[in-house]
Design brief:
With 294 residues, the protein is α/β, with parallel strands linked by helices. It contains 13 helices and 8 strands. It has helices at residues 30-38, 51-60, 71-74, 86-102, 122-134, 148-157, 173-176, 186-202, 214-223, 245-248, 264-267, 270-282, 289-292, and strands at 43-47, 64-67, 108-112, 139-141, 162-167, 206-210, 228-232, 240-243. An 8-stranded parallel β-barrel has the order 1-2-3-4-5-6-7-8, surrounded by 8 helices. Helix 6 (148-157) runs parallel beside helix 8 (186-202). It is globular and about 55 Å long. It starts with 29 loop residues before the first helix and ends with a helix. The structure holds 3-methyl-2-oxobutanoic acid.
Length: 294
């Protein structure tokens, strides 16, 4: 029996996406992200969970790829991210890292520390972060403020770049009482502001702000000069934007949140959709505050 052979040099089951027609970009690093911020260029981020989609996103020009624990919902069919294990995160991080190596390998790869993998002690956190860094991550992300600042400092001092995550923190959805907008009243906004500054002081170089009022995330972005804010449902005033890949392709199992746009509808291909998303973020056309701000 003969095995089908791909003419593109890949396997018969998946090929490397063609190189971008754009001039080859430099690999993304923390200094490069700082330069972008200084130049006023927005950062685009998207989630990916496997090699093929990671390679396509890399070729489409995103700066950052997040192996989000949202994989619990979109890949594993869970109801929340609480059930996602460190083994699962390491496995998907390895898959994505391989995809990036098969593409141009430009994007900065962030991987989520899952629920329960960093809350027991800083030692537990460095153990979990090491696992994800060895799987190919360039940075780890963890959720929450206050108690997390010493954990962030412990990781950063040991050479692990950290992205923090405030606002709606899905790992604590049960404590929050549901997927709701955070930081709406003055007291909650002030608490978020204080936590964000603490996380920056602890060494976090990125901060995801999820479902917070646009005005608050704009203020936080101005206040945080050493930490890039990345918004999701947080208006257009952040240093960058992130979307869950399945949501922006319109292939999720439920209804999209109000702030999500289906970029595949008009693009005709996955790569075209991601390119359109990157363009819209850079040109300030996504998100549209009139439609999405709280
Ligand atoms: O897990 C995830 O995909 C995330 C994004 C929603 C920011 O944390």
């Amino acid at each position: 029996m003969s095995v089908p052979v791909s003419t593109s040099g890949g396997t018969p089951y998946g090929t490397i996406p063609p190189a971008s027609p754009l001039p080859r970009r430099k690999p993304i690093s923390l200094p490069r992200l700082n330069q972008m911020r200084e130049a006023g260029e927005k950062i685009s981020m998207i989630t990916a969970y496997d090699a093929t989609y990671a390679a396509i996103a890399d070729a489409a020009g995103v700066e950052c790829i997040l192996v989000g624990d949202s994989l619990g919902m979109v890949c594993q069919g869970l109801h929340s991210t609480v059930g996602v294990s460190l083994d699962a995160m390491a496995y998907h991080t390895e898959c994505v890292a391989r995809g990036l190596h098969r593409a141009q390998g430009i994007a900065w790869l962030i991987s989520d520390l899952p629920y329960g993998s960093y809350s027991a002690s800083p030692e537990q956190a460095i153990h979990s972060a090491t696992r994800l860094m060895q799987a190919g991550a360039h940075m780890v992300k963890l959720e929450g403020g206050g108690w997390t600042a010493p954990v962030v400092q412990f990781l950063v001092e040991r050479g692990v770049p950290v992205c923090a995550h405030l606002g709606l923190t899905p790992q604590t959805v049960h404590a929050l009482g549901g997927y709701r907008v955070q930081g709406r009243d003055a007291v909650a906004a002030a608490a978020l502001h204080e936590q964000a500054l603490e996380l920056q002081d602890a060494g976090a170089s990125m901060l995801v702000l999820e479902m917070v009022p646009a005005e608050l995330s704009r203020k936080l972005t101005q206040a945080l000069q050493r930490c890039h804010t990345i918004g999701i449902g947080a208006g257009s005033g952040t240093a960058g934007q992130v979307l869950v890949m399945h949501d922006m392709l319109g292939v999720n199992l439920g209804n999209n949140a109000r702030f999500v746009r289906d970029f595949l509808k008009d693009a005709g291909s996955v790569r075209g959709a991601i390119e359109a998303y990157v363009r819209a973020v850079k040109e300030g056309k996504f998100p549209d505050d009139a439609l999405h701000a709280w």
